[in-house]
User: Fold these one by one.
Assistant:
Number 1:
Amino acid sequence: MTLLRCALIGLSVAFLSACGSTPDATMPTEPAPTAENPWLPGLNGAALHSPSDGLCPARLGTFDRTEYSTIALNGLNGGERFDGICRYGNSDIGASITTYFYLTEGLSQTDEMRASVASIEDSRDARITQLPTSTCAGSISAVRPNPGANCIVLENESGSMREYVTMLTRNDWFTKLRASVPTADEDAMRITLAAIMEFNANQP
């Protein structure tokens, strides 16, 4: 073996070792999702709720995602239920968006929307008024042209805050969004509605 050939072999071994090309090279892997921690990383910073395939983008228009997490609740069937939650905020317009991914547990979308409205009413001291939903429903049907989508628009008694509740149903999962926005600023409501459309368009 010539000195030149020995030198080339030595360089090849050094190159493979430096590049981690050996079978023993350790590659970082994401932990497998569990019921308690069902999230996986998606493209461009998105968070994927693996059981439902629901997606929380890192941004919705000018809304920044501030959290994605899981909460444990008592299910209707007596067992423990783990709901996925994502929160978004836009401090410039004083608006917020929260999204939920959770099992239907046999409930219809109509019943679940009624329960959502009742929950909002219970959490407010003032009376809640339900508004016409044509704008909201139209915005969802434009991006989700299927019968498994719904929208409700609520306003507090003083008319200063508006709340949108949208819901999609896919297989055994609900995907719900709640958005709160001041009504004094028409641009704020337009920006919020655009964010709602973007979220629903990103769902499977």
Number 2:
Amino acid sequence: MDSASINHEIILQALLNRDGSCRDFNFAERLSRQACVNIIALIKRDWELTEGHNSDGKLISLESVESYLDHDTGAVHLIWTSHTKCPPHLQIYISFEASEYFCELTFFPGDLYVPYFDLSEFLNFLNRLVTVSGSKEYYLRYEDASWRHGEETLKASVIFSHSSFKLSP
């Protein structure tokens, strides 16, 4: 999207667009282990872990996620539910190798209940995630398998990034 046109109305339309794809929020490609732990800690304040899997597909508990992140290589997929926050369903995917971590949050437009959805509250949540992660980069985007990290120009799948829309408290 053209950075000059990014405003709350454009963001809201992109979030609520029921085109069949999910929305992803990505951080810098190489986060620290602690950044991922901080992201999980922030999310577990308001969401409950309903299911977690490691890269072998085995169930893992919230208590074992941090120790699993100590492995040399792997991934975790965590599914969260909240009865008070929007979106009520949130997924986190973390993959890691050689102390470099990649983290992506996923949610679906259908979970953003239009009469109750507060864009400012949602953007504040994203800002808190960026703050606890220490990431200098972020991308809110449509699911797009052809997207490559850092790609934002001429890519309609990117709703906004750190260079086109500043998250602020």
Number 3:
Amino acid sequence: MKKSKFLVSMFTLLILLTKYINHIIMLIMVICVFLNFSACKAEEENYEYIEDLLLSQLDWKSDDYLSSLEEGQEDIITIKNIHYGNFSSMDKDELLVLFHIAPHLGGRDHTIAAIYDRATLNIKTQKSLYSDRVSIYVLPYINGRDNILYISNTVYQGVPSYRIELYQIQDNEWLTSPISDYDIDNNNVYAVTDNTLLHIIEINYDEYMSASYKYKYTLYWDSNAGKFIDISDSSSPYLE
């Protein structure tokens, strides 16, 4: 008798669950959406706080364009990219933050590269890179500090010009280092692959300013020497 009552109760409960199953599923979905929205909102607010903190520490006076403006025009500055590494000290984890500057009127787009302490987010040093297009590569060095390879492309009156620099941060100063023992001038196009190979392509213009390209050579980043070397003289895995 008791077993029969139990079966009847279970059957009745099953009918009720079946009747209201859609409502239960909808309630669970609403709860999940609410929790997900709350988490996303908190994450978004945290990111905005960090972005504002990084931006507020930039020294406008050290940038030729920003120094001519009144502070309060932060809307022309956006974070383009963030790299992690040890740039000024092998004992401190740091952030290399790239800010894109997009002037409203006049001026030209350029980039500010700034080093921050990763733990405190306090700024250490910054450098303005005056070019339309900027590419940054973080290269390891045997001394425990990362080097910064800067490649730029600026177009003036329809003619592109290219520049390449290798920076080391010492005492919060951006010091240039020899990229290679090769004579690398700015009459080239540069491409980096696998963050270790530097491809050099010569560019020339005819009388009609039509460009022609000629591959020259490929160099390999040697973290022991702290510069790019001939790939044939290295222990590069690409030679295997």
Number 4:
Amino acid sequence: MSTLTDTVTLKDGLRLDTILSIPDNQRACLVAAPCMGGSVHMYRPPLERINEAGCGCILYNPRGHGASEGEMVIDDALGDLDDIITRFVPADVPLIMVGHSAGANMLLHFGARYRRPSRFILVAPVLNSRESLFYMYRSGTIGEFLDILASYTDDSDTMRSILATDAWLDPETWRKRGMRAILDVLPSRMRIGSFLENLFIPGYNAYDHFAEFSPITSVLLSRADTWYPLETTVRLAETHHAKFMYLEEARNHFFAGGWNAAWQHTIDACRTAVCDGAAAAQP
């Protein structure tokens, strides 16, 4: 039997839209984190199959993601996840961490700051938040990012005009023009200026953590990615000898058509972690 809940209440009373599926015989635990502005529900993870492998599951929507309350701040997201894992996963149970896009970046920071997992599976990872946006401006795909932001505000025209070029990414320009305050007062479901400052000024670079964890990391890529330069990810993987593979089923950065294959790869990793834990427990 598994313990299943779809809401976690934090110490400060905020409620997170986070699924916990913990079997009685939990011998490993999968932790999944979504892309920026996304929700773990969109990935449709096969909970029963994961639990049948003896693996618990924490599908984590940070503050401001899915139906989670609050606003996204990376440091808060890391601390919240540590609180959840500490409450529900004993220290001797290995973690398998699966992060998509910016979620991969966040989990690498978590592993460096809090609890080291036994395995990372990074799906179309964004390893440097600022590099992602500069790449999108250069390649003409920044509209995909702005479309997500526009879904949070009733004044998308003003937001789009302010962010039309990459000038705002210069920290001095951002501060001198008071761009956080200008964007924060737009009628929105979140403070857009604070959100952008938290994630992109000065930004989150996970290169060093990727290098540190490369021996336990697998990277899953699509052949086309409009959010982050594939050549950067491949170069870093080759430099640090991390495993990487292209999943031909995945059609884009959001891994459309590729999640069944990604979850099968993840379930195989869960089974390996369970078997390794059983072998280590033998006298």
